[in-house]
Amino acid sequence: MDKLLIRGGTPLTGEIGISGAKNAALPIICAGLLSPESLYLKNVPHLNDISTMLRLIGQMGVEVTMEGNEGLTLDSRGLNNPLAPYEMVKTMRASILVLGPLLARCGEAKVSLPGGCAIGARPVDQHIKGLQAMGAEIRVEGGYVLAKAKRLKGARILTDMVTVTGTENLMMAAVLADGETVIENAAREPEVVDLANCLSAMGARISGAGTDRIVIEGVTALHGASHSVMPDRIETGTYLCAAAATGGSVRLTNTSVAFLESVVEKLREAGCEVVSDQDAISLNAPGRLKSVGVRTSPYPAFPTDMQAQFMAINCVAEGAAVIRETIFENRFMHAVELIRLGADIKIDGNTALVTGVEHLDGATVMATDLRASASLVIAGLVAQGETLIERIYHLDRGYERIEEKLARLGAAVRRVR
After folding, report:
1. Count of beta carbons in the 10 Å neighbourhood of residue 360
2. 241 is known as an active-site residue
3. To 10 degrees, the CA torsion angle through 187, 189, 195, 197?
4. Which residue out of 30, 117, 241, 315 is catalytically annotated?
5. CA distance 257 to 245
6. β-pairing, 144-148 with 180-184?
7. Are 10 and 247 within 8 A, CB to CB?
8. Can the peptide bond before residue 300 be classed as cis, meaning omega within 30 degrees of 0?
9. Which of 20, 65, 136, 411 has the fewest CB atoms within 10 Å, measured from its CB?
């Protein structure tokens, strides 16, 4: 199993490009199931979760053709096996996103309840509730969601909680439903908007994406299209945090501050100078950061996927800060590993008190989930001596060529196989 070896103490400097967003690419790939015509996608990142999703739809009968380094074409004419088996989805919660498209296109679906990072329950009941409101017959049996519907019917759906994948699943199901569907309490994330833009390019009629009320007028069929996946705002934020923690100066291209305003505001509060232009963000860090408190909430507030990274930078910042996690109930597992490096962190339920220390010391630590892995990388870049991060397969699920990008910024980092 691969590990990452980091020798800390070097400020990150230079320029790198940001990859396409994993959390946008995954539902957009599933959107390819909705039409028998080809969907061409650009700016698709090379990540383990993407590879898993492509294998999953491939066994359903979809032909996947790679087009250069970051492009691919999906041809779903041969879709004939609306099944998502446990063996293929046990490592990726996003696999539930095939449920809505399969039900809308094929009239049936058998989808394993998903696995993934152990950061919380993340139930799929809101997906099921919404599809049932649209007329689907659904039961859960033997660890699988079994769904049938001759043709889904438009409905008003009010979700009990804001759910990104739930919003995306119901939106994809609704584009081929008979009549109008209204999703109330919808997720507002940029990835939801990116999916809506792709679906609209395929002929869907969607309004309100990016607000908490999305209206979809069903059509009889979608056609082929071309779409470029949005930049990864969490990868952007992670590299900004890494540069900030190390006292560095970086320029990130192929990205936008528009998707990341809450994070950039916190970095400025910590003492960083952040400047944006049309498709790039530059950051200059002070000699030592100031501690900043954060509270995670649904977009456009501070994202839960950046909580671990800010815990890492607070570990070496001046002062103390409170971090409150309101989205997932089990997302402080990285704190124990950061403490192994010398961090001063006290946990009380969904609240962490982080008091900055003068320095961290390298040690062997273990990644517990995707974003926890990123926090350990940031801590390792700051720590004195060498830090060895085990179980970095989590990193490979969400960060494209992370050791190569860090090396281009001057970090002493290498993969140990």
Report:
1. 24
2. no
3. 110
4. 117
5. 19
6. unpaired
7. no
8. yes
9. 65
What whole-number distance in Å separates Cα of residue 179 and Cα of residue 189? 25
* 277: helix, strand or coil: strand
Whether the full predicted model's pTM is greater than 0.70, yes or no, is yes
Cα–Cα nearest to 310, from 374, 261, 219, 389: 374
Cβ pair 207, 169 in contact under 8 A? no
Rounded CA separation 114/133 (Å): 22
Statement: residue 117 has pLDDT above 70: no
Specify the residue for token string 């969607």: 206
Task: State the Cα–Cα distance between residues 259 and 236, nearest whole angstrom.
Answer: 10
CA distances from 56 to 3, 61, 70, 217, 415 (A): 27, 9, 19, 29, 28
4-25 in b/e burial notation, b at 16+ Cβ within 10 A?
A: bbbbbebbbbeebebbbbbbbb
Token pair for residue 166?
Answer: 């739930």
| Percent of the chain surpassing pLDDT 90 | 86
Q: How confident is the model at residue 115 (pLDDT cuts 50, 70, 90)?
A: low
10: closest CA among 415, 412, 336? 412
> Which residue shows structure tokens 């085990």?
390
Identify the CA nearest to 163 among candidates 147, 181, 194, 186: 186
The percent of residues above 70 in pLDDT, for the chain, comes to 97
Query: What are the backbone angles phi and psi of residue 237, rounded to the nearest 5°?
Result: -65, -35
